[in-house]
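OP here, attaching both records as promised.
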Amino acid sequence: MSAQPEEAPAPPAPSAAAQLLAQLRADRRADTWVPAFERDWSKALEDSRHSYSLTPLHDVVRTWQLRVAAAPAVDAYVDSGRDESGFVALDAVLGARR
């Protein structure tokens, strides 16, 4: 029997964060993505120090891997030229935030 529930995802490889950061640095969005990743990583590192758990670090790696994987689809959508100017702002529907 395993101590982890069956639905728990496998942890990323130990080198996954370094590989991901290298991939982000090579991307055209590096100016915005690298500082955002480093900020998320620093916060997760601090959370891990306090909780004695690697889960926050694994979550950051998984989240950023998904963002990188989704980037081509987002680029294709933006490049498709769809006009979204006719949509209603969420604040107009829900009202002003308090």
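Record two, same layout:
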Amino acid sequence: MSKKNKNFSAEAFGKKEADLPQENSFYFGPQNYKLMLIGLALIVIGFLLMMGADANTVDGKYDPNSWNEGIFSIRRIRIAPLLVIAGFAVEVYAILKRNK
């Protein structure tokens, strides 16, 4: 037990240890924030690519007698959701990446 409390003395009781270097108290570093912004940008771009005219619009006006095949485009069905999922994956990686 004396080895465990080797540096213990009555004078040091209640004093702060000023000799220890202060470590960075933030968990995220600059690289984490950059990755988070990249992930957020991918998510926003994905949602913007999903936007567009609805199924029943022609030239921006609602027409119940028409059908717009544009809602089934590759951009809306494949590319945009892939970008959103990639953005969320980058966000998870940015949060879990350890700061050195």
